UniProtKB/TrEMBL annotation:
This is CPNE9 protein. Residues 100-238 form the C2 domain. The keyword Metal-binding applies. One of its GO terms (biological process) is cellular response to calcium ion.
Length: 524
């Protein structure tokens, strides 16, 4: 809930001070449209107002939530002329939350040639988002989907959004070869499950796992947080229904049942608690410079930059980086390339700095990373093989130096996908899973990405030489799933960022929890 306090406003009233009000506008995701969200009260006759009325917003780490604060000189009329305008400020909600102690001061602009004063924004988290749920489910008599064996069932949970769409919020593990699976208990924040709205629909799909990723749909059922919570006193049984079967078969009853065996709630620290307590997110980028991408000068190349459009690599980098940078105070991002022959002697390298500076591979801002990436395309020779392990181990080495919870690392790897050092990469990820870091992999181009799905570890926990990953720290998405025919890159890249970043808060919390690290108290 951001509160606001403008300071040293312009004086527009000839006979007295101004009577300011703050109007909050929220940008509609993926468009240039701004919608009025709300207004503070009017405070008469002051240039340093402290407003009482708060704005309550839903916060999503994984989205760029752009806000605009307009300061007209008072709302004695709903309409005000440009000549009365006291200024405005643009800010992303993530910037307010990522700033020290959740306080951000911004200059007001918009009146040419005049200093308009400043606006101070304060953000605090509402407490109903802190609850965390542990539940366990089992199923009975699910439909048999596999030709030779029984099914390999897993559940996918979705929360419903305001606009009627659904967002995936949890997948259970796969239980192999049974029609009566019992899944492990799992833990999920109430916010992720229903956004704090206890009556909002929670949809659950039941799938039969297939190795090639084309999982078979068994059926679905719907519930809500309130309904699930009744299981604290009794078992709840849900019928699993397959709408297509229901339409086709007159005698169809159901495709099995799912029983909620247990459900408990406890309060937890949140992602925002750690960010406000001073935890910094450190963002590192690694870009695939292997020859399979195609010659950068050719329009068919995945690295081709036309005068009209960024490459898939640049689009993915911008989409993810522009959100994460709000949580990184120095805005310095180490950026590497891998799989190229590097000047002056043409040696193959799997972690060369894009800015050509071995001592300091950091670029200034996301724009700096993009500049260095385009510069590297002109100076290195695309080659091979595609090795991930060196750059993962590089970031893991940095992450291992500070493990007290004050630093958390996010590595973005953008690749065309055919990985050469799978065994070493699995070993590197299993080792990294005990460190304060997460890995995002964006696959560009037409390749099959089965290896990436294995690294993702959502369905089967990643292991290497008998050691299992302590936490799931990898999130993979194929870029092609987000490119829509309309050519609206803003919207499709917002969706890509949302899906790859959605798991970061939970991954950070799982690290803090396993190490019993509590957030530092923010100074009041």
């Amino acid at each position: 809930t951001p509160g606001s306090s403008p300071r040293n406003l312009l004086d527009m009233d000839t006979f007295s001070k101004s009577d300011p009000v703050v109007v909050l506008f929220v940008q509609v995701s993926g468009s240039n449209e701004w919608k009025e969200f709300g207004r503070t009260e009017v405070i008469d006759n002051t240039l340093n107002p402290d407003f009482v009325r708060k704005f309550v917003l839903d916060y999503y780490f994984e989205e760029k939530q752009n806000l605009r604060f307009d300061v007209p000189p008072g709302s004695h009329s709903a309409l005000f002329g440009a000549q009365d305008f006291l200024g405005q400020a643009f800010v992303a909600l993530g910037e307010v939350i990522g700033s020290q102690r959740g306080r951000l001061e911004r200059p007001l602009t918009g009146v040419p040639g005049k200093r308009c004063g400043t606006i101070l924004l304060l953000a605090e988290e509402l407490s109903n988002c802190r609850d965390i749920v542990t539940m366990q489910l089992c199923a009975n008599k699910l439909d048999k989907k596999d030709f030779f064996g029984k099914s390999d069932p897993f559940l996918v949970f979705y929360r419903s959004n305001e606009d009627g769409t659904f967002t995936i919020c949890h997948k259970t593990e796969v239980v192999k070869n049974t029609l009566n699976p019992v899944w492990q208990p799992f833990t999920i924040p109430v916010r992720a499950l229903c956004n704090g709205d206890y009556d909002r629909t929670v949809k659950i799909d039941v799938y039969d796992w297939d190795r090639d990723g084309s999982h078979d749909f068994i059926g679905e059922f719907a519930t809500s947080y309130r309904e699930l919570s009744r299981a604290q006193s009794q078992f709840t049984v849900y019928e699993v229904l397959n709408p297509r079967k229901k339409c086709k078969k007159k005698k169809y009853v159901n495709s099995g049942t799912v029983t909620l065996l247990s459900f408990s709630v406890e309060s937890e620290f949140t992602f925002v608690d750690y960010i406000r307590g001073g935890t910094q997110l450190n963002f590192t980028v690694a870009i695939d410079f292997t020859a399979s991408n195609g010659l950068p000068s050719q329009p068919t190349s995945l690295h081709y930059v036309s005068p009209y459009q960024l490459s898939a690599y640049a689009l993915a980098l911008k989409a993810v980086g522009e959100i994460i940078q709000d949580y990184d105070s120095d805005k310095l991002f180490p950026a590497y390339g891998f799989g190229a022959k590097v000047p002056p002697d043409g040696k193959i390298s799997h972690q060369f700095p894009l800015n050509n500076n071995m001592e300091n591979p950091s670029c200034v801002g996301i724009e700096g990373v993009l500049e260095s990436y385009l510069q590297s395309l002109r100076t290195v020779q695309l080659y091979g093989p595609t090795n991930f392990a060196p750059v993962i181990n590089q970031v893991a080495g940095t992450a291992a130096q500070v493990t007290d919870g004050s630093q958390y690392h996010v590595l973005l790897i953008i690749t065309d996908g055919v990985i050469s050092d799978m065994l070493q990469t699995k070993e590197a990820i299993v080792t990294a899973s005990s460190l304060p870091m997460s890995i995002i992999i964006v696959g560009v181009g037409p390749a099959e990405f089965e290896a990436m799905e294995e690294l993702d570890g959502d369905e089967v926990r990643l292991s290497s030489r008998g050691r299992y990953a302590e936490r799931d720290i990898v999130q993979f998405v194929p870029f092609r799933d987000y490119v829509d025919d309309s050519g609206n890159h803003v919207q499709s890249m917002a969706r890509l960022a949302k899906d790859v970043l959605a798991e970061i808060p939970e991954q950070l919390l799982s690290y803090m929890k396993t190490r019993d690290i509590k957030p530092r108290r923010a100074d009041p």
